[in-house]
Specification:
The structure is a single chain. With 1510 residues, the chain is α+β, with helices and mostly antiparallel strands. It is built from 43 helices and 57 strands. The strands form 14 sheets. The chain has a five-stranded mixed β-sheet with strand order 42-43-44-45-49, covered by helices on one side. Strands 1-57-56-55 form a four-stranded antiparallel β-sheet, with no helix packed on it. Strand 6 and strand 7 (81-86) form a beta hairpin. Helix 22 (1052-1059) packs antiparallel against helix 23 (1065-1077). The radius of gyration is 42 Å and the shape is flat.
Length: 1510
């Protein structure tokens, strides 16, 4: 399992001659997309014993485009330096220890294609580009040299290891040259022999030419003069060079002779599942010449195999195959790079990168594969842990493959299997079957849903029903009744549900995937008899018990359905933007009610948690609408893409967001615990390890999956402000996505569309993928076309693989240019002719019979001959052959002879017109003949019908006219004149066809006008038009026009919903008014309330009251808002508000009323709302009592807290008015407890001063009888009142203290159970809290002056706080919490000790308790200081059981109504006694000490007990 972070990196870049390298000591780096990933190899990697010795240790981030070259400095003492080249035009030098850029240059004007750090010169980096330019750059003196050797595309270059001035360069056309850089790049040798791209150049590791037994004469190749013939100097003497080329050969060259001495032809290895070796494109031939074995050479081969050639026996072509014995250890696709690496323990290793996306490490001694590092070639869209095969993590990737990672493998940290068959598209969703081993459902970008058996090698089963768009999510759930599933007996226990981008949820029968899937909308409609349009679904999630299904929708609503018939029991209106993710809490919590928690995230950055226990258990008749969340988690700054509950904790949630971070929350406390910022992109998925409570996996659009530990994160919340801007910059340094052509993204794109609609870096350069894809096995179908590494530009010039894209695009563009030129020239032609002539002369009409006319203008002889031929023809009835031939030649005489000849003349003239591009003249000639039908037929065939021709068509008869109009309409459609085509169809009464034509081409406005004018009002076509247009407008964000469409379709409900989509106050108010007009009362009420709440946040009470006035059922809410306004006004007068008073908009009745606040409230209610009689009060009370708000936490936003408190106070005032004092006390106590739980002491004291100015005595009198059911509640209320006074009094004693310590409540609240507030921390003089930074109220100085009498009375009442039963109850609760904490700590320690990996900064650095800026040490940290006697597990379990039993015995009244922490009050009193001797009676001090001794056994209080009780 491994207690250390891990990275699944992006794939090494393809088609680069050198984009990975390694240095002695065990550091390996490879270029992946725009950065370089570093891997530590060997003993220094710190891998867990028994696992492969390597670890991904970091990333070099800085380039903005693909990194095309990477090379280390191979000089001892500077192994930490390396260089990279990139398509962004720069060469950067890095220090890998600091991961920072040391120097850079941007000298190249063209794409850099080769890079090498000289092995002889410490600071020389040589680079070459596609136009043949070479730059030498000396780092230490920041100097450079420009060399232009050959005007050819450089493919690779390698500096000589023996001579500092020699560099060998390989070109695209197969030429290899050796240059001397000291002589301005003079060519020493030009080596000819290869006839295709040079992929790799390797110098022999030994100088001289004695290492290979090559006979000088024995060489089949003829001597060729290679370049200049130069004298044999020591410079060139004696060294071999090996080159690998795409022409399938390796050649060894002699430098002393400047020619080839050996040629090795690659063998065709027949292997299982291999590809056709004759496909030349499938080859990349890379070489490595081992330093310690100069007679051997390693090369890649056709299908990914590696060969070790024996150069001593070249004539026999002798080679050994790497990993010959172990099947499946070799690469399955071509290999791009080979890097030797010597580890600290002197092992000789070889690292290879390949198109199969694996990095492999080979032991050169045995030629066996030591380990494999898998990588990702696309976005990591989806993560899913198998519920059956623990630790098995499935990853859905944008490269068309599913990875299944066995994360608990003991022998291999990266035990990853790839599944690609039948996928052929980005994998966007995954879901394991809950009980069946190895059964994995997947969904893809093109709408496919399939099932893999990961234990077999069979291709997956594919559902015959595809989604029209991307599959967003998958879920296994119980079968719901649908015809397709047959009878009870033969249905599976679980079926697969898929939600697609078009908004449908389909149910697939896993036993019959070839059968049709069932659209669950049909069942939802029938069961709930829904008339209006169903929302577009974007997410589906089943509760773990399979009884409840949640559907998230595009409008932000979430609907909760009950099996078996999908009865809608509840709608949650919270997000108001597209819902991306819904997650139900696990079922195995220590508190069973937590399984009803449902967390959801949307395109808004806020996460909401809802508690659906009450709704699900009450099983309401009609659906309930929920508008208040149970918990709100805010902090992210961009959309939420994924949520996952921890299976190890209660209420702990992790979220993934587009802000580039993952956040762990304590959802019950609304508290951010830790924030992971390791990704360089937008996060798409997150999953909690099922085995390790501290370990989380996340995936993003940076092609990475990270395994990280929550306890090791230094940040506790998402970045805000500057930090998030930095993170955004970091993200933007990734390659920029170039959107696909012809795809206009609408203004409001859903996250899921945005995610999958060509907004992904993988698809940036799809057109530039290697062309081989078409011909290879299924796997490559789409995978390679999506490689991000080859931009079009590079491909067209370098063409390392034949690339189709550039020529195509040029081909498309040229005609356009020509056409444009034509058009512009035509426009400009007339002015070139004499402009005066244009004005004076009208242009002469074109002749209808130009050929005849021209024949009549010939020479006199010809005209005379015409006369003779004509005379002969007219005079003789029988014409001889000569005359006939003459007549045929002189066709213009048809004008003077018979009709047949005339027709022939017209035919010749007509042909002439057509050839000269004047079809209209031809048509006129045909009309003269009277052949109207023929004219129409010809014109229709040639697409040359005109309005004139069609207008004449009726002359040829009714049917001909009908046919002609239809033909013309078709022709107009081809010319994209759809509206005109529709008008013509209307002329022959084809109304439906005309409407359909307009609709199909999105002319909705016109289509509706036609349909409304020509069809019956009740025709369904009309409604369909309105709904279709409305849906498109809604998608584009034109909500008001969409609402009009829905109103036109008599779908008022949808109109109101769409208007509310914008979410601003004005839209919500209009939507509420609209819903009210059309009688959708429930919707109207919920929208009006939402509108009022929006206005309330802006402190606009006038607008809020106007909104609430829209609906009678909101009368109660009007009272709450009124009280809220009066309270805010009251505080503003006392300078207690948050300083926003300037922008507040108050109602007139809020000013000018004097007296205590409750009286002012009732007076306003009476005057402004005519609330006078007990019946009216009772009605309002019943209305408000149905609304339940969740308890507060110290992370509840202040404005939300205030609204909830005002709701309770309104109930209290109403109850007083109807003399229901029990209810009044309970409501008042709820308001007080809410402020207490949120840690807002000031608000609590303000509630006391406004509603209990004289204390609680009058309430005691009203309750009267001691047996009243509200007595326990009253006792609690009184206790809180005294608690507040006690603190005020204590602080008044220490007035000179800084202000912050005066008005701050001393104890944080920790709500560890859902219903009960239980206190874990205590109060003491040292403690402060940053929760409530309000200024102190002005009434304290008075209290200070009248210390004597006031204090005596007040201190005497403190006896009420010494409640033995509450002290005992709170002690039991503390024990339970402490034991649970200790158990969790024990589990954590056990795991850490087991894996011998203590975290670097101590076990407690990030304990959530301590992160809360809490004054006291947290319980567990105290425990560690005092752990004299470690407790055993049985002892802890026993304690837990006993404490739970004690809690069960307490009366309900004690459990129901919270009470101030008794021991805290004891401590404060003892402090008061010590600061002001004599103020607290001896008896009270003794009582306090006794309670502390008796119940202060928990760690929280032990230190304080020692202070006061010894």
């Amino acid at each position: 399992m491994g207690q250390e972070p891990r990275t699944l990196p992006p794939s090494p870049n393809w088609y680069c001659a050198r984009c990975s390298d390694a240095v002695p000591g065990g550091l390996f780096g490879f270029a992946a997309r725009t950065s370089v990933f570093l891997v530590r190899v060997g003993p220094g990697a710190g891998a867990i014993p028994g696992t492969p010795p390597f670890r991904v240790i970091g990333e070099l981030v800085g380039h903005t485009e693909r990194v095309s070259g990477f090379t280390f400095s191979h000089h001892p003492g500077q192994y930490n330096l390396c260089a990279t080249s990139s398509d962004d035009g720069t060469v950067k030098i890095w220090d890998v220890e600091t991961k920072a850029v040391v120097a850079e240059h941007a000298l190249h004007q063209h794409t850099i294609s080769a890079l090498h750090w000289s092995p002889r010169v410490k600071d020389l980096i040589v680079s070459g580009d596609e136009k043949g330019v070479v730059f030498c750059y000396w780092l230490n003196r920041n100097d450079s040299q420009h060399l232009f050797v050959e005007p050819r595309t450089i493919f690779c270059l390698t500096c000589s290891p023996h001579h500092e001035d020699l560099v060998a360069i390989g070109y695209k056309d197969g030429i290899v040259v050796i240059i001397d850089i000291s002589k301005k790049g003079e060519v020493i040798h030009r080596l000819r022999g290869h006839d295709d791209e040079i992929h790799s150049i390797a110098w022999c590791p030994l100088p001289g030419e004695d290492c290979l037994p090559i006979n000088q004469e024995e060489n089949s190749e003829p001597e060729l003069p290679n370049g200049k013939v130069i004298a044999q100097t020591p410079v060139t003497k004696g060294c071999y060079l090996a080159t690998g080329s795409k022409d399938q050969t390796i050649r060894i060259w002699s430098c002393s002779r400047g020619r080839g001495v050996m040629t090795l032809k690659l063998p065709f290895l027949k292997r299982r599942g291999g590809v056709d070796p004759t496909v030349k494109e499938r080859l990349w031939l890379t070489l490595h010449w081992p330093r310690d074995q100069p007679t051997q050479l390693v090369s890649s081969c056709f299908g990914g195999e590696l060969l070790l050639w024996d150069l001593t026996q070249s004539w026999r072509r002798k080679y050994s195959l790497f990993s010959a014995s172990a099947e499946g250890q070799n690469h399955s696709r071509i290999v791009f790079n080979l890097c030797p690496l010597q580890t600290e323990d002197n092992k000789q290793l070889l690292l290879s990168t390949s198109m199969d996306r694996d990095v492999k490490c080979w032991d050169m001694a045995t030629l066996e594969c030591c380990w494999t590092l898998p990588s990702l070639g696309g976005f990591a869209y989806s993560l899913a842990f198998s519920p059956v095969d623990t630790g098995c993590l499935a990853i859905g990737v944008g490269d068309g493959m599913i990875r299944v990672w066995n994360t608990i493998s003991i022998k291999n940290n990266y035990d990853v299997k790839n599944f690609w068959q039948g996928v052929k598209s980005k994998v966007t969703a995954l879901c394991w079957h809950p009980t069946k081993e190895g059964c994995l459902a997947f969904g893809t970008d093109d709408g496919k849903v399939g099932l893999y058996d990961t234990y077999s090698n069979k291709p997956p089963q594919i559902s015959s029903t595809y989604h029209k768009k991307t599959v967003y999510s998958l879920a296994w759930g119980p079968p719901i009744p649908s015809l397709s599933l047959g009878g009870e007996g033969d249905r599976p226990s679980l079926t697969l549900y898929s939600c697609g981008g078009e908004g449908l949820v389909l149910q697939h029968n896993p036993w019959k995937l070839n059968g049709e899937a069932f659209d669950i909308n049909k069942l939802i409609r029938d069961t709930n008899s829904i008339k209006y349009k169903l929302p577009v679904h974007t997410e589906i999630s089943w509760k773990a018990d399979g009884k409840i299904m949640a559907l998230g929708n595009e409008d932000g609503s979430i609907e909760i359905f009950q099996v078996p018939n999908l009865k809608l029991i509840c709608t949650i209106q919270q997000h108001h933007k597209l819902v991306n993710t819904i997650s139900w809490h696990h079922e195995h919590s220590s508190q069973p009610e937590l399984s009803y928690l449902m967390a959801s995230g949307s395109n808004n950055a806020v996460i909401y948690v809802h508690n659906l226990k009450a709704v699900i258990e009450s099983n309401p008749e009609s659906p309930v609408t929920i508008t208040e969340p149970y918990r709100t988690l805010s902090g992210h700054t961009a959309k939420i893409t994924c949520l996952a509950w921890s299976p190890h904790h209660d209420g702990r949630l992790v979220s993934a967001s587009y802000d580039g971070t993952a956040q762990v929350w304590d959802a019950l406390q609304e508290e951010p615990l830790c924030n992971f910022r390791g990704h360089r992109g937008r996060l798409l998925c997150v999953a909690w390890s099922p085995l390790d409570p501290d370990c989380i996996y996340s995936g993003a659009d940076d092609f990475c999956v990270y395994k990280w530990l929550a306890s090791m994160q230094e940040h506790s919340r998402p970045p805000q402000g500057k930090k998030s801007i930095e993170l955004e910059k970091k993200r933007l340094s990734q390659p920029k996505p170039k959107p696909k052509k012809k795809k206009k993204l609408t203004s409001r794109v859903s996250v899921k569309q945005e995610l999958y609609d060509g907004n992904e870096e993988e698809s940036i350069r799809e057109s530039a993928g290697p062309a081989e894809n078409g011909s290879v096995s299924e796997q490559e179908g789409e995978e390679e076309a999506r490689e991000p590494e080859l931009p079009c530009g590079v491909a067209s010039v370098v063409s390392r693989e034949p690339v189709i894209c550039p020529p195509l695009s040029l081909g498309l563009e040229k005609p356009k240019v020509i056409v444009n030129n034509k058009v512009t020239l035509l426009k400009k032609e007339p002015p070139k002719d004499k402009p005066e002539a244009l004005v004076i002369k009208k242009r002469k009409a074109r002749s209808m019979l130009p050929l005849s006319t021209s024949l009549d203008h010939r020479s006199k002889e010809e005209l005379h001959q015409d006369c003779l031929v004509l005379a002969t023809a007219k005079h003789f009835k029988e014409l001889n052959e000569d005359v006939s031939a003459d007549l045929e030649e002189r066709f213009h005489l048809g004008l003077f002879t018979d009709r047949a000849t005339l027709y022939r003349m017209m035919e010749v003239e007509g042909k002439g017109h057509l050839e000269n591009g004047h079809p209209e003249l031809y048509h006129q000639l045909m009309l003269w003949k009277g052949d109207l039908k023929g004219v129409l037929q010809t014109a229709a065939d040639r697409g040359e019908l005109t309005d004139n021709l069609v207008a004449m068509a009726p002359v040829a008869g009714y049917h001909v006219w009908l046919w002609a109009v239809e033909a013309f309409a078709k022709q107009l459609c081809f010319q994209e004149q759809y509206v005109k085509a529709a008008s013509h169809l209307l002329s022959i009464h084809k109304v439906y066809e005309a409407v359909e034509l307009l609709k199909a081409h999105h002319f909705y406005r016109e289509a509706i006008a036609v349909a409304k004018a020509r069809l019956r009002p009740e025709d369904p076509i009309l409604k369909d038009l309105y709904l279709s247009w409305g849906a498109i407008l809604e998608k584009d964000g034109h909500y008001a026009v969409a609402a009009k469409c829905y109103l036109g379709a008599a779908s008022a409900y949808d109109a109101a919903k769409v208007l509310a989509k914008k979410g601003d106050a004005a839209s919500l108010k209009t939507a509420a008014e609209l819903a009210s007009i059309v009688g959708e009362d429930e919707l109207s009420a919920s929208l009006a309330l939402r509108c009022a709440q929006e206005l309330l946040l802006a402190r606009n009470w006038v607008g809020a009251q106007e909104a609430l006035q829209l609906h009678g059922s909101l009368k109660g809410q009007r009272l709450v808002f009124c009280l809220h306004e009066l309270l805010s006004k009251h505080w503003e007068e006392r300078q207690l508000s948050e300083g926003e008073s300037a922008s507040s908009s108050y109602n007139t009745w809020s000013t000018g009323i004097a007296g205590p606040l409750p009286e002012r409230v009732t007076a306003v209610w009476k005057s402004a709302f005519s609330l006078d009689t007990p019946e009216q009060y009772q009605a309002a009370l019943q209305q408000l009592q149905t609304i339940k708000y969740p308890s507060a936490t110290n992370n509840t936003p202040f404005k939300q807290l205030l609204l909830h408190i005002c709701h309770d106070l309104t109930l209290a005032v109403l109850s007083q008015q109807v003399a229901s004092w029990d209810k009044a006390v309970e409501a008042l106590l709820r308001a007080v407890v809410r402020s207490y739980d949120s840690g807002n002491f000031t608000v609590m004291q303000e509630v006391h001063s406004a509603f209990l100015p004289e204390g609680c005595d009058h309430l005691r009198d009203k309750l009267g009888d001691h047996q009243s059911p509200a007595t326990p509640a009253f006792k609690s209320l009184e206790a809180f009142f005294i608690y507040g006074r006690l603190y005020e009094f204590w602080w008044s004693l220490s007035r000179p203290c800084p202000e912050s310590s005066v008005w701050v409540r001393a104890a944080h609240r920790r709500t560890t159970s859902v219903e009960q507030s239980q206190q874990l921390d205590d109060a003491g003089s040292e403690e402060t809290d940053t929760q409530a930074p309000q200024p102190e109220p002005s009434k304290l100085p008075e209290l200070d002056m009248r210390l004597t009498e006031e204090s005596k009375r007040m201190l005497n009442t403190c006896k009420e706080l010494f409640s033995e039963k509450h002290a005992s109850f709170q002690n039991s609760q503390r024990t339970v919490a402490e034991v649970q904490e200790t158990l969790a700590e024990m589990i954590r320690r056990h795991q850490k000790s087991q894996f011998c990996k203590p975290t670097a900064n101590g076990p407690d650095k990030n304990d959530p308790e301590q992160e809360a800026e809490q004054p006291l040490p947290s319980p567990q940290s105290l425990g560690k200081e005092e752990k004299n006697e470690p407790l055993s597990l049985p002892e802890l379990t026993k304690r837990l059981t006993e404490a739970n039993e004690r809690i069960a015995k307490f009366p309900e009244s004690v459990k129901t109504w919270p009470f101030p922490d008794v021991l805290e009050c004891c401590l404060v009193l003892l402090h008061v006694g010590s600061q002001s001797p004599g103020s607290v009676t001896q008896e009270m001090q003794q009582q306090a000490q006794e309670l502390l001794q008796k119940y202060g056994s928990t760690k929280v209080y032990q230190r304080h007990c020692q202070t006061f009780c010894t």
